[in-house]
Amino acid sequence: MSVLPLTKNGHEVMLEARGMSKRFGEHTVLRDISLSIQRSEVVCLIGPSGSGKSTLLRSLAFLEAYDDGEVFVEGELLGYDRAQGGRRVISRPARLREVRRNMGMVFQQFNLWPHMSVAENVMEALIRGRRLSRAKARKLALETLEKVGLVDKADAWPNRLSGGQQQRVAIARSLAMSPAIMLFDEPTSALDPELVGEVLQVMKHLAEEGMTMVVVTHEMGFAAQVADRVVFLDGGQIVEQGAPAKLFREPSSPRLAQFLKNYLERNSLFDDRPAANGTCL
Fold first, then answer.
1. pLDDT digits 0-9 by tens, 240-266
2. I want to staple 195 with a disulfide (CB 3.0 to 4.6 A). Which of 45, 164, 175, 268 is the partner?
3. Under DSSP, is residue 157 helix (H, G, I), strand (E, B) or coil?
4. How much is the pLDDT for 201?
5. What three-state secondary structure class fits 132?
């Protein structure tokens, strides 16, 4: 059993990247990323399109194999094992599953199985991955759907749900596996604007319950209200990070200041009109 490393303030580090880089051919998309996520911390990754946000999130889960550096999940090295001579080799699938056992991920697309009911979508991983009986899996699926406000849709087909409801089912599917860390890759980007709030509200409740979360988002109102820390990326690098109140109001880097100015001009970010979650920066 691994012992979680501690930060200087004594908090447990749940997820950590150390000097991580990622290349696609000759193009470097992430450059020397070092980032620590503490237990129960909510970290929002923001930045312009193409800045590397989604690639960073996928690399933190080893859905993309990073090229340099290291990633640790609850103190365990993710993605690689040490071989003879000190070189490293990609871990076997069983080892990857073991290190990622407490990690859940929600994508932009819902990826629900259309031939299964809502409850069956949530049950599937419980039956195949956790080896639960169908009765126990359904009981847990219904309890989890209750958390996201969709227990009344348990026997509905996915194509009968709105986009926001489908994304909440996707969240329930991950939650049912009892993750310690949840990664969200722009979970509202595929939704109509009027459906964004219901998904963000579920995520807000998860944060209030102490879920460790890393969220790639363009929803600045959500980041301002819910995040403990906001990380701004540009050009595959972390340019600036800090508490949202300071980061949004007093950016120290010209690049972040320009990004926020552009966002302000497009969305009236700092006026009195509410954001999708009902708050303003």
1. 999 999 999 999 999 999 999 888 777
2. 164
3. coil
4. 93
5. coil
Q: How far apart are CA 32 and CA 101, in angstroms?
A: 26
Paired with 37 in beta bridges are 15
Cα dist from 77 to 84, 92, 232, 243, whole Å: 17, 13, 25, 28
Encode pLDDT of 177-218 as tens digits: 999 999 999 999 888 888 899 999 999 999 999 999 999 999
- Tokens encoding 167: 């994304």
Question: Would you place residue 280 in the very low, low, confident or very high pLDDT band (cuts 50, 70, 90)?
Answer: very low
Residue 277: predicted pLDDT: 43
Cα distance between residue 257 and residue 248, in whole Å: 8
Across-strand partners of 71?
17
Strands 212-216 and 181-185: parallel
Query: Measuring CA to CA, which residue among 216, 226, 162, 158 is closest to residue 192?
Result: 162
Q: Are 170 and 116 in contact (CB under 8 A)?
A: no
Find where tokens 């980032």 sit. 35
Nearest to 18 by CA among 27, 9, 28, 5: 5
Q: Find tokens 């409801």 and name the residue.
A: 165
Q: Give the number of other Cβ atoms within 10 Å of residue 242's Cβ.
A: 15
Q: What span, in angstroms and rounded, lies between the C-alpha atoms of 195 and 193?
A: 5
Beta bridge partners of 182: 104, 213
Handedness of CA 166, 167, 168, 171 (dihedral sign): positive
Closest CA to 53 of 269, 172, 223: 223
What pLDDT score does 144 carry? 96
